[in-house]
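Revision sheet: structure tokens.
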Amino acid sequence: MIQHPGSLWLLLIVIPVIAVLVRNFQKGKHDLYRIGGEWRKHQLYDVYLVKGFFSSLSFVFFVIFTVLALSGFSGTGRKIVDIPSKADIVFTMDISRSMLSDDILPSRLLRSEDVIKNIMGRLPDERYGLVVFKGRGVKLVPVTEDSEAVLLNLVSISPEMFTSTGTNLEAGLLSAASMFPEGEERRKVIILFSDGENLSGNLEKAITVIKDKGIEVVVFGAGTEEGKVLRDSAGRIVTDKAGNEVTTRLDRSKLKYIASSVRGSYFEMSGSSSVSEAVDSLALNISSSNLVTAGEEAYTFYLFLAVLLLILFVSIRIFPWKNVF
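Predicted:
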């Protein structure tokens, strides 16, 4: 698994690096003949060729392994990680206007509420919190054992709760990440409900914070990719500046990116069977006492190799061979 696949483009650096090394080798050979003279040129060239080849090879592989380390490669091994048997779960709900769309029935927002109730019914012994977000994140219910507090607040959730516009996913995720009590041996889980549309904020910042805190993330995609015409609170069709009808659609790629960036899970709520399977899978995962992780971190291994190759490159360059140079 590669955490930052875009970094692999840096491997293209190898091409100009090789070109520079070949050019320097040719230039160095010419200078060697000029300085060493005819009588020593064969002896000097043999040493120069060996040193040049191995030093260049070590530098090229240094660049390659450095790029692999930056890409966040994971190995193919599997490891069992002991994790706490109890969890703190923060539901994080997108309540932007598009969540009122009924391309999934009864609506994206109401389907999200149904899934939350289903999860709480399957996992009655966990603690729960609730965050909603539009242009900003709002903590409605702190993490608590009182599940009724979460259920009571679900009834009143709507886009009219506050006036900020847009969908600032960073604000929602950071609000959720700050909800977990410190110093307790419990799993930390954020369950996100969103259609992925019109996201704003610095998503990478939120992902970094979530990773640093060891928070697990489960993403539920609300809506369909076919979408539906967006309507305001009065039922009127929303149009853009050009007068065209605005269609709201599930942005699956954005939501999958969030899940994959934190090694989380992604589910969709487009069908009753898929929702049931998702809740079953989630309940099984959270109720498990250990977590099986596929792909141990391998970037440290590549980084270690890169450092060794850099040391080898420098050593070949500075230490004389056969008392020549």
